[in-house]
Amino acid sequence: MQDILAALGIKASNGGASTGTQWIAAGGRELPSFSPVDGKEIAKVTLADEAAYEAVIAKAQEAFLEWRMWPSPKRGEIVRQVGEALRKYKEPLGQLVSYEMGKSLQEGYGEVQEMIDICDFAVGLSRQLHGLTMHSERPGHRMYEQWHPLGIVGIISAFNFPVAVWSWNTMLAWACGDVCVWKPSEKTPLCAVACQNIIAEVFAANNVPEGVCGLVIGEANIGEKMAHDGRVPLVSATGSTRMGKSVGAAVGARLGRSLLELGGNNAIIISKDADLDIAIVGCVFGAVGTAGQRCTTTRRLIIHEDIYDSFRDKLVAAYKQLRIGNPLDPNSHVGPLIDKGAVEQYLQAIEKCKAEGGNFLVEGGVLEGAGYESGCYVKPCVAEAQPNFSIVQHETFAPILYLMKYKTLDEAIAIQNGVPQGLSSSIMTLNLREAETFLSSAGSDCGIANVNIGTSGAEIGGAFGGEKETGGGRESGSDAWRVYMRRQTNTINYSTALPLAQGIQFNL
Ligand code: UN1
Fold first, then answer.
1. Which atom of ligand 1 is least distant from the CA of 424?
2. How close is the Cα of 446 to the center of ligand 1, in Å?
3. CB–CB of 268/296 below 8 Å?
4. What is the pTM of this model?
5. How far apart are CA 430 and CA 440, in angstroms?
6. How far apart are the CA of 293 and the centre of ligand 1, in A?
7. Complex confidence, ipTM
8. Got the DSSP string for 122-177?
9. What is the number of the ligand 1 atom nearest to the C-alpha of 238?
């Protein structure tokens, strides 16, 4: 690991506040980052205090005045070079993600690949960002709209995707002409330090204004400050519904813009017409990948009664084959949870499920002994449950999967939609009528609805996000860029008269 840290410019003690190429006095206490893989301290970061936050915001405001005047394709060129740098650092960065966050090495590399993909997407976008033209009702007039940069984009990200979610926001925001200030999760601060170091290389080589890429590694008070800060027109926050409600309320109270990507409670409907081999892999990866700590993790399976028993047995057999262990070992399927607090929540959810009448087919539990010294490794588990159990209605960020039975597709869709969250959903079926009904306006109410693939592992090309308590925001692909810009309608009169709209006469 020392080689990897050195390759990414991470020292024993690191700064927690940066304006781009320069680290500035962070002012807070020292925060050690422990790996959930082996419980060891990786390195320390000095947390940003409010003065550091102020300094980073001031620099960002200054930088915006210059950056917004760079032609968008020139900003895209910087993003292209960031993508190249990420290709160069894919191995060490993917390994650090895996070691500091605990996801499998495959998924760590996959996360860096998502960053590279969004860079490529944003480069193309930098030559587009197009508005519409309209026909004016007045003679000798032209009307069109254009999209201008917004200003400072505040990014609050979670531990589970410690680098990709930042890049989805930042790469689009930069192409759009915005400057960014990132408040990463305190649980994965070194991933943020590594990204900042990678960016600094590209920025220094291209004289990008200092302040375009701000970083403040701080505690909840820094996130709150950002949410209330009128100098930050857009706050993009990824994390729990509880956090999102508080950020959304604070940003809303000042009529700012927020982009919220919050909890999911994602289900897969397994039809009697499903390809069960595909369904098994999709369900197990969805439920245990990233140890159940994706917002797109599969938490509920809604299974047709005719195949319920056979599918349940196949699933239990598949769970028996799971190898839980060091995520850096390519043979492991499931790594640790992020910390002991997460383990505690997992145990409490199991108890609640049992108390409500849940029947565990695959028992959970915390692993002990050699290789499990961090105390963060848990067994993925499966329980038969009822849709209305309060624990089933709740997102527990851990590998607990609930099974439910259905008779009709309408009933299955009602169960799938009958939770407060609305992020991702799937149906496994080879029946065209069922698939199309699930995708219709009377079908899934989620932001993501898939057929014959699981709920997790979305590509960056689509808009990512969900409805209801998931927060309504959309990040990443499609036209998600629009939230990072302000729309301006322009009407130009090139005639010799001043006709008024709606035919109003006003003569002097
Ligand atoms: C998240 O869990 O916060 O679709 C993001 C997926 C990933 C992103 C998940 N591409 O599972």
1. 4
2. 14
3. no
4. 0.97
5. 16
6. 9
7. 0.97
8. HHHHTT-----EE--SSTTEEEEEEEEE-SEEEEE--SSSTTHHHHHHHHHHHHTT
9. 3
- Spell out the long-range contacts of 23-27 with Cβ–Cβ below 8 A and sequence spacing 24 or more: 24/52, 24/55, 24/56, 25/51, 25/52, 26/52, 26/217, 27/51, 27/52
The reply to whether ligand 1 has any atom less than 6 angstroms from the CB of 295 is yes
Kindly give the interhelix angle for 105-125 and 164-175, rounded to the nearest 10 degrees.
10
Q: Which atom of ligand 1 lies at the shortest distance from residue 448's CA?
A: 4
Ligand 1 center from residue 54 Cα (angstroms)? 31
- Active site amino acids: 261
Q: Is the CB of 97 under 6 A from ligand 1?
A: no
Hunting for tokens 């159990």 — which residue is that? 389
Other CB atoms closer than 10 Å to residue 455's CB: what's the count? 30
Contact criterion met (CB below 8 Å) for 235 and 259: yes
Token pair, residue 118, equals 């969004």
C-alpha span between 53 and 15 (Å, rounded) = 13
**Rounded to an integer, what distance in angstroms lies between the CA atom of residue 159 and that of residue 309?**
37
C-alpha 363 chain-centroid distance: 30
CB distance 161 to ligand 1 below 6 Å: yes
For ligand 1, say whether the CB of 46 is within 6 Å of any of its atoms. Answer: no
Q: 4-15 in b/e burial notation, b at 16+ Cβ within 10 A?
A: bbebbebeeebb
Type of residue numbered 216 = V
Question: Other CB atoms closer than 10 Å to residue 65's CB: what's the count?
Answer: 12
Q: Are 223 and 74 in contact (CB under 8 A)?
A: no
Per-residue pLDDT tens digits for 74-126: 999 999 999 999 999 999 999 999 999 999 999 999 999 999 999 999 999 99
Closest residue CA from atom 7 of ligand 1: 457
Q: What's the token pair of residue 143?
A: 């009307």
Confidence of residue 262 (pLDDT cuts 50, 70, 90): very high
458 lines ligand 1 (CB under 6 A): yes
What band does 275 get if pLDDT is binned at 50, 70 and 90? Answer: very high
Whole-angstrom distance between the N-terminal and C-terminal Cα of the chain?
79
- The first and second tokens of residue 473, run together, are 């925001």
Helix (H, G, I), strand (E, B) or coil at 43: strand
